[in-house]
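G.,

No rush on this.
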Amino acid sequence: MKTKLLISLILISSCLTTWAWFDPSISQGKVDQIRIGQTTEADLIHFFGRPTTRQIDLRHHVTLDFMRSVPMPWQGYVPFIGSFVGGLRIDAQELWVELTPDGRVLRYRVYSSRNSVKARTVTSTTVVSHSSYSK
């Protein structure tokens, strides 16, 4: 009896700790608040928390990568039959953002394994000027 109780407590505590350390998900409402040329790195950290990775390239452009996954539902902890009753239904999300040297969003991409989040606007408009030379 004590062994069953101990195993049950360990199982429940592992489920609770998984949910306690879960980062906030990348929601459609938060993604819709990203504005090309206006949203800053501080705004992104406010919306999504600390990025998983942060890199700076030779042009001084900063890339931020926010990766999230929803913890496994309780069915996933049931041995043998958990995967058959929806225990493997998870949602992995990624938000990749490139910032200009002054810290504003240049472009971004959103990925979601269940297509729960989509990007509304993903790149900035670029004005290309053509020069003509006469002889």
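When you get to it, here's the other one too:
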Amino acid sequence: MKRFNKILIFTLILLIVQACGTGQSAFNKGNYYDATIKAVKKLRTKPDSKKSLALIQKSYPLALEYHRQRIDALGASNHPDKFIQIVDTYKLMNNMADEITRCPAALNVLKPVVYYHDQLKKAEQMAIIEQFNSASNLIKTENVDDARVAYQKLKWVKEVSPAFSDIDRQIAIAKDLATFKTIVVHLPEAYTNYKIDSRVFYNVLFDQLAKSGTEFKRFYKPDLAEELQIAPHHIVEVQFIEFSIDALHEKINTKSYQNDSVNIGSYTDKEGHEYPVKGSVKAAVEITEREVMAKGIVSITIKDYQTGDIIQNRKYPGDYIWRNRWATFNGDERALPNDILQLTREKQNMPPSPQDMFMLVSQPILANATSYLKSYYNKR
């Protein structure tokens, strides 16, 4: 127990030394803000830490001076986001004051702490106009990436000044321009050998894409896109360009089985004891195997809506083999192995319909095509 207590004490001391060292390390690198915050956190757990008290008396004034100089430099610059950066800087300075105020040990050696509420309010008023005008210019480019930046700027304006003129309409415009829109189109099958409905495949693929949509990524079916008057960025065409079903293949095998250790009767000795009689039993088996293979290929074409140019075209093949296996026999079923006996209980079945075969073929195709499209549009 004493050994455990010693280890625990040593560990606590080590953590304290590391915490203090971390603050000093930040100070040595010129990161006076982090040094101040870490020293405050240390003083909350150990108010009499001489190292932390000494550190915070050096780091806090230097942090204030550094951020004041940064604000002056930004104010004199032509940086397009200078006022929002000044706002962020004042928030850091006020946060230091809050942290120190809530730590008696730190407050005792740093009175008075400095708040910049009035300066922050004035900077926010300038930043609101700056960010709104910047967002308006970005919206004019009608570029997706620019619109996404504009959307974030306008959201900030809305948060700081909810009643700012025209803010809600501008946010809606920015969000619409920031959203990458894709219309997914079903094209009729490029073959007439079988009467199938490939829309089932298309609907499942579309549903999975729609579920993968995000705030700035949307997929539409043509009818809804027309109703909403959507001007998309891309058109995705989904078309089965091949589907075939091979002829039925049948194979029949015959085999004989014998079991030499089967109870075929019993006998009783003179003393009345009964004993089993072992003997051989035989059976002739006819095993029938039927196979039908279906194949399909779907074409996924991504086109630029404005130019009609093909951006990507991929083809995804798939196949499925339907099997039916059963057996009949003559003789004693006790001669049959378990797997063959199970086959004798199977029945002859008819192959699935073309539509059912199509659905079975389309399952692996669907997984590959959907994975490709999701991966492609995750980058948009």
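Residues 4-20 have pLDDT under 50 and may be disordered. Strands lie at 180-186, 217-220, 234-245, 249-268, 274-304, 310-331.

Enjoy the weekend,
O.
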